[in-house]
Amino acid sequence: MTWSHEDGVRATAPAGGVLEVGCDESGSDGENLTGGNTDVFAHASVRLSVESAATAVQEIRDRIRSPAEEYKANHLLREKHRAVLEWLLAPAGPIHGQAHVHLIEKTFLVVDRAVDLLLGPGSTDAVVLFRVGPRAFGQERWRAFLTAANQLLRVRNDGEPEAPVEGFFREVDALRRASPRTTVSDRTAVSDRTAVSDRATVADVLDRLASARPRADAYRADVGEGPTLIPLLNPLLPAIVSTAAYWSAGGRPVRLVHDRQNMLTPERIAWIEETSRRAGVGLTGLRLVEARRDARVQVADFLAGIARKIASDELNGRGDPPLTALLRPYVDRASVWGDESSWGELVSPDEKRSDEERSPVP
After folding, report:
1. Basic and acidic residues bias: where (predicted)?
2. Are the CB atoms for 327 and 311 separated by under 8 Å?
3. Which CA distances in Å does 293 have to 51, 150, 276, 326, 335?
4. 5-104+231-351 fold
């Protein structure tokens, strides 16, 4: 079977005025963002027709020739199938210009959500704290802070009710004691002034976090009163809103067809739809299907797993430049990403967001 790229292009026109997009994710560990199996979450979406997506899936099967009943991203990520992977992502391949990936660096999401909760949304404090923290305090102390922040925010708590708050502010105090109280001097070199300024900003953020305990206590009290409808740390729900925002840009109505997930209860789907409506996103509905029954979702599953692996490798300093370059056109510039070096590789130079630019999702 031979793939014709024009088939995918023709499939981009919305049928009946509504654009239907297939979606899936990779890297979900629930709210365990600092101790899970993966450090990157990826949510992928494709706007191929069912027929075009089925043609692409069959082409992948014909090229790989594995006896597996259901193909996953790991099939394409094997070195012996690299040519198939490159074909899938390439400009002449079946999904170029027809697919999108929203990436989330999990540990940055923890810091971002903690700062938003305790200090209020809309600042760049989380970015500076995240980028300077490991260098300023050392990996071991910084990891302890991340773990405590994760425990503070997650709904599930197997210990004493007050333990997450106590643990978090204990780590904040430890960082404050270790934080150098330096000031910027006019005689300091420009590069040194930047470093000193960043450290001073981190010290200020930590001071303000330390004084925000009432907000943390109130949050944990709310969690303790009953099951929380929308877990603050689970990346799937805001990723879906971001995906809908991308495809509905310019006022296009969009309907998402998503792989079944336990997280996607009717109440949470209603939250996604309401959040999208308030943000001016043209999401008209979210339908759940089994991935194997919808080729569009299968292709999104491939792309999500591939993107997560490539982005994780880049994050950990073992990036594959040719594969990163092939992924770059698909990456959402509103991704939730804190590491500066890897982000510079994952997006094109003219698409790099500034530190002030934030994801539009709550």
Report:
1. 349-362
2. yes
3. 12, 36, 27, 28, 29
4. Nucleotidyltransferase; domain 5 (3.30.420)
**HEC secondary structure over 19-63:** EEEEEEEECCCCCCCCCCCCCEEEEEEECCCHHHHHHHHHHHHHH
Please report, for the chain, the start and end positions of each structural domain, with discontinuous segments joined by +.
5-104+231-351, 107-224
Q: What is the pLDDT of residues 208-235, one digit of tens each?
A: 999 999 999 999 988 866 655 577 888 9
3-state secondary structure of 255: strand
* Alpha carbons 92 and 272: distance in angstroms, whole number: 34
pLDDT over 70 at 9, yes or no: no
Listed residue (295, 306, 300, 329) closest to 52, CA to CA: 295
Query: What is this structure's pTM?
Result: 0.88
Q: What is the pLDDT of residues 291-326, one digit of tens each?
A: 889 999 999 999 999 999 999 999 999 999 999 999
- The pair of structure tokens assigned to 113 is 């959500």
d(CA 207, CA 186): 25
